[in-house]
Amino acid sequence: MSNQEQHGPAVIEADSFSDNDSTYTGSLGEASYTTSITSSAFNYQMVADITHTMRENTFWYVLAPLPSLPICLIPPSPTMNKNKIAWTCEHPESEVIGNDLSPIQPAWIPPNCRFEVDDFEQPWSYSQPFDYIHGRELEGSIRDHDRLFRQALENLKPGGWFEIASIEVNSYSDDDTHLKAQGMLDGVKGLHEASKKFGKAMDTVHTWADRIEKAGFVNVHEDIYKLPQSPWPKNPKLKELGKYHQVNMFEAVGPYTYALFSRVLGWQREEIEVLTAAMRNDLRDLSKHLYTKVHIIIAQKPE
């Protein structure tokens, strides 16, 4: 059986705000949610999609114990291109291959990093196995999970590591205030329905650890973190994470909903705009103590 570990407080304590308070300086106002957050808020590095500001000085990009000279494959992810480059700059002894569906890479990349335009769900045809394979934010991008995990196993060196991380497409609370967030509830329900009809479900991350183990991996370990969806927590670190993820959610609501709701569920644009406005209003309302969960799974190919 895979080993699972829950991190953070069992119950996140909320800060003191008035009901429906969106005027708190750390929350996003109505006029401009991307400009109301200071530039310093974007000065961060990602640790398995949990953010830390530059003053932390030390950054961790992976949790798996890697060899000193890794050859790495990193499949596509909206968040990963800068981290691929940062990793190769800090580890010039490594060789990193980034895989993307489209040529969206920056003009300059380090000499030990290269990008390939390919579909990671098709058969892999690499000439040599990897020390490490990393996937991030692939929830809703995978049609056949078992095939993907088998291909990852087949393309690792004996003793090599596979790491995959994703945020749940969901909203929770410890005090049932998420039940008042009808916009978020309706949006999540629709995303799950549409993504299943499309064939790439957005509610699978909780099954990945078991699937990875069944594929033949050993030393499977899953870390689960609560990630606030707005800056409502009292804890300063969680509040800051909530601030970042609130921006992330505001920017993701449209891209996540428009194609699936219109092409799969048959919604009109006006209906989608009403829903996304309701979802953003729920994210602004700090009396609704919304969070989601981050799953990070590491696993090793047998020696």
TrEMBL record:
InterPro entries: SAM-dependent_MTases_sf (IPR029063)
Taxonomy, superkingdom: Eukaryota
SUPFAM superfamilies: S-adenosyl-L-methionine-dependent methyltransferases
Pfam families for the chain: Methyltransf_23
Example of a GO MF term: methyltransferase activity
Gene3D superfamilies: Vaccinia Virus protein VP39
Name this protein carries in UniProt: Methyltransferase
Organism name: Aspergillus terreus (strain NIH 2624 / FGSC A1156)
